[in-house]
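Standup notes
- DV: blocked on the single-chain target, sequence here:
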Amino acid sequence: MQLILKYFPNLSQDKIHKFSLLESLYQDWNLKINVVSRKDIDELYLRHVLHSLGIAKVISFKDGSKILDVGTGGGFPGIPLAIMFPECSFHLVDSIAKKLKVVDEVVEGLGLINVKTTHSRVEEINDTYDFIVSRAVAAMPTFVHWVKGKIAKEQKQDLKNGILYLKGGDLSEELNDYKNATIYNLSDYFSEDFYETKKMVHLPLKFKG
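- DV (later): unblocked, structure below
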């Protein structure tokens, strides 16, 4: 939890309270339904919570924004972002039901009213969003194909509507066809070794009516 305060020192008491509850909620539910590896549970704030909040270092979502989290797994990056941006609505989608069971319990335990979950493949979601977030669930061309037609027309943000993608390693080949993609190195924001190769990619996508 100190790690979160190190990089986000001005959090409200409510946000601090919710972030500090994450560890016990995940530890408790992970014993029943294993969604996060043992090592990752021990380093939950470093590997999952702060990683998710890398997006919040690049963009501050405006109130009323709609965000889709594709392949949310145990609720990342969606849940930490939903805590950080309580006036935005988050839709967390995963095709694996047991993972969403944990997400639902954590959301309930935190009292988050700005999160909904759907057990589905993303292609079956019929709605549009300002941003689509994810943590490396597929190569970018595949991901772009999945989320086609799900970007809202109206621009509310400083960054153009589109994909915000957390990924590590060399992305040059994967992003070859996306000349308008911007890569943000998370090591510019976080000094821990874990973030040395971690990146966030912003890929603007046009509304397709």
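- Follow-up: DSSP finds seven helices and seven strands in the chain.
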